[in-house]
Amino acid sequence: MKPITFRAVAARAAPTLAKSAVLVGVLMIMPLMAGSGGAMEKKGTTPYVTHFIFRPVNSIEIPGLGSATSLEAVGTTQNMKGEKMLDKMSAHCAALSVASGDKQYIDGACVLADSDGDKIFSTFDTRDVDKSQPDMGCGTHIITGGTGKYKGITGKEPFACNAMPALAGGGGYTAMDIPHNTTWEIK
Questions:
Q1: Terminus-to-terminus CA distance in the chain, angstroms?
Q2: Is the pLDDT reported for residue 74 higher than 60?
Q3: Of 57, 73, 107, 159, which is the most exposed, with the fewest CB atoms less than 10 Å away?
């Protein structure tokens, strides 16, 4: 009978040790993935609502012709499916509201930021209405890009405009819930 050497034991144990190391690595990563929601999807359709407060910044009134008002909007988002995408993000928008004769519209741009500081950029136009989604008949956001985990994101967000009760106090502030039905992709 040959004596058992350290090399012989190590050679027999190496495959088992390698498998054990891989298993330990996986077990260490799993809680991290569960806590962060796992890998982020690369595309999807996400319904969410932004709860906005609008503040008029400046206005030009031309009696008999119309007005133009610059607006700032701030708020937070809520994913309507309870998913992480587009949920609990801060929203900040700049917009121009134009009323001229029978023409009334609002154009602008927004940035959404998540708790990691990653951002999604979009523009919007209330004249661009997706007629295939009549419940979202207020306009459309176009997602133009993002940072961090949202780098390379594009998409389209038809939206509705649901007025909220008038805010107390002066200053012309208004509130509105803006439901979106977002189709997005990260390339």
A1: 63
A2: yes
A3: 57
